[in-house]
Design a protein that fits this description.
The chain has 472 residues and is an alpha+beta fold. Helix content is 18%, strand content 28%. The radius of gyration is 24 Å and the shape is globular.
């Protein structure tokens, strides 16, 4: 009897139940090189069942977590509002957040420039019966949470969307505090007293950990179906210090999905994956395709891609840092990162932050280079500064704006990878000016605007990031 086809199927199925299925698949490949008796096959099946049972107990009574579907739809608020309205509301939102800092601080000495914006989100069905909840995509932090209907400090969620009600889900259960994998510092710990629960404090959200069915919606999914089935541990927020509806009249966001590292609750870790990718739609709409978030084998950059860039991801415990080397304007170097710099050279890709931030020396070197470009190319005088203002580098709109060509701003990373910062300039018709929408602050962060039109691939096993333009 030829068991090859059955063994391949068995190896594939095991990946849905055993996070370390890769090691089993390797073993199967070896076994398939020789003929295998039915008795041997039976012993392998028994061994895998036994291993699954052990892992169920190891996770505190929950089934092991593994993705079945790996490609999911990304939405942005850019598609929900007009250009002029969006820019105005974004500008007002940024102005109101200028003095705020991201409260969760896993890395001592790092102060983040703004609270998450909710500009980029994915949709999920959570619980039984399923409730559709939109989750802001967060590449910075590992924590996934939804706002609970029992929240004491809440942000507004606009109908038809609503807060999650654990009591209405027949499959919801509290995460056992004995699950020391998820219920662990710096995010979570067992509740005080005799209660059997796991509580968390992520700075911008506090509450209790639960487990429930969690279905990310794929491009092929309808509003009532999903191509992913998982039991996921996530936070049920009772106190929210983030406001996703600030600056918008309609807020579809009901929580966050964390792709960062530094804690086992990361959705990447819970899906048993060591790689993920995402693309954000380009503002020009010159490319086709559905913007998606991908995991595992679906996370790749197509072989037809041109100008693929790759740079190492640092071995930092908590963040997927990249290392900045230079900044250029139309290919001319305007800033070189000193070799002695440590924190100043670190760069993060943040889907929770609308715009890009650069540390002081890098920012003002770029600003000087741009002032010089506009002076030499168009004879313009010093830029216009209006306070209070979100942006420092602004110019009055010229009468012949259609003839103006904005320079290409790019940052270079260790290994030679170069990322052009798309949409580094924005026109604000109501103010009759255009501005560079890059701000000064630490750490260096590449925001949503400047990530649009790229696919980014995080290969955590190889500690490298690759990216290519227009690969949605």
């Amino acid at each position: 009897m030829d068991h090859s086809h059955f063994l391949h199927k068995l190896a594939s199925l095991s990946s849905h139940f055993i996070p370390s299925a890769f090691h089993f698949s390797t073993s199967f490949t070896f076994i398939l090189q020789s003929k295998m008796s039915f008795v041997s096959l039976f012993l392998v099946v028994i061994f895998m069942i036994f291993a699954t049972i052990i892992m169920i107990f190891a996770t505190g009574g929950t089934s092991p977590l593994m993705a079945q579907a790996q490609s999911f739809t990304i939405s942005t608020r850019l598609t929900n509002t007009s250009e002029s309205t969006f820019r105005y509301k974004l500008r007002q939102k940024l102005l109101s957040q200028t003095a705020k800092a991201r409260p969760l601080n896993l890395d001592p000495g790092i102060v983040f420039p703004a609270l998450p914006s909710g500009m980029v989100y994915v949709s999920a069905h959570i619980g039984t019966p399923p409730l559709t909840i939109n989750l802001a995509l967060d590449t910075l932090f590992p924590f996934t949470w939804v706002q609970s209907v029992d929240c004491q400090k809440c942000f507004n969620v606009s109908p038809p969307f609503s807060n999650f009600d654990p009591k209405k889900s027949t499959t919801f259960q509290l995460l056992p505090p004995t699950n020391t994998t998820i219920c662990s510092p710096p995010l979570a710990h067992p509740s005080a007293g005799a209660g059997s629960s796991c509580v968390y404090d992520a700075g911008y959200s506090r509450g209790i950990y639960g487990i429930d069915e969690f279905h990310l919606l794929s491009p092929l999914s309808s509003s009532s179906s999903s191509s992913s089935t998982n039991l996921i541990a996530f936070g049920c927020g009772t106190r929210s210090m983030v406001d996703f509806d600030g600056g918008w009249e309609f807020n579809p966001i009901g929580g966050m999905i964390g792709l960062g590292k530094g804690h086992p609750s990361s959705i990447v870790s819970q899906l048993g994956s060591d790689r993920f990718s995402y693309c954000l739609p380009g503002r020009s709409h010159s490319h086709s395709g559905q913007p998606t978030l991908n995991f595992g084998s679906e996370a790749f950059i197509d072989a037809s891609a041109t100008n693929v860039q790759t740079t190492p991801i640092s071995g930092h415990e908590y963040y997927n840092y990249l290392n900045l080397t230079t900044i250029t304007v139309n290919g001319d170097v305007v800033y070189i990162m000193p070799e002695t710099s440590s924190r100043a050279k670190l760069v993060l890709l943040d889907t929770g932050e609308p715009v890009t931030w650069l540390v002081e020396d890098a920012y003002y070197s770029l600003q000087d280079g741009l002032v010089r470009y506009f002076a030499e190319t168009y004879g313009w005088k010093e830029p216009k500064i209006v306070y209070p203002s979100v942006y420092d580098l602004c110019y009055d709109l010229p009468t012949n704006m259609s003839s103006i060509v904005f320079p290409k701003v790019a940052i270079q990373f260790l290994g030679g990878a170069s990322l052009e910062l798309h949409d580094a300039f924005k026109i604000f018709p109501d103010e009759h000016q255009f501005c560079m929408i890059i701000k000064e602050g630490a750490p260096n962060v590449v925001g949503v605007y400047q990530q649009m039109g790229y696919r980014f691939l995080f290969d955590l096993a190889q500690s490298k990031l690759s990216f290519a333009p227009n690969m949605c």
